[in-house]
Write a structure and sequence with these properties.
The chain has about 160 residues and is α/β, with parallel strands linked by helices. Helices cover about 25% and strands about 10% of the residues. Helix 4 links the parallel strand 5 and strand 6.
Length: about 160
Amino acid sequence: MEKKMGEAVARVARKVNETVENGADSLDLADCKLMMFPIGIYKVMRNVTEGIHLITLANNELKSVTSKFITTFSQMRELNLEGNYLHRLPEEMRTLLHLKVINLSRNKFRHFPEQLTTLKALETINLEENEITGNRQSIHETLVDISVAFSDPSKASDGEGGEP
């Protein structure tokens, strides 16, 4: 167990260092078993955060995204949070003026994240395989110019105690 944890930490450190050293515009921490975004990364990346446009945190064990994460990486254009345990987003999401694509599929959302409705640059929202109930048609009507993907409604919970 300790060896696996050590390997996971080393993998995160390696990926962060590669991003910083190469001046890359993306940070890929997918499949790193993260339960939260590592605080130490903010310090290591402080000189390059403005240049990070794509962040992938897919297939981790995140239960939340912090305000600090959002405000630190304010220039993001694409955020992939697929396959975590998220059920809400921080209010600071409204400050991501350049965000074009957000992947929130395979999380635990029960309600549409309203913070996303104010993002003018947003083009695509993926909410497939969540437990979102409510009127999807009104969401599509509100977000006319945005591609919003939900799971097939016949396979989703109807909010009336039905099976997914």
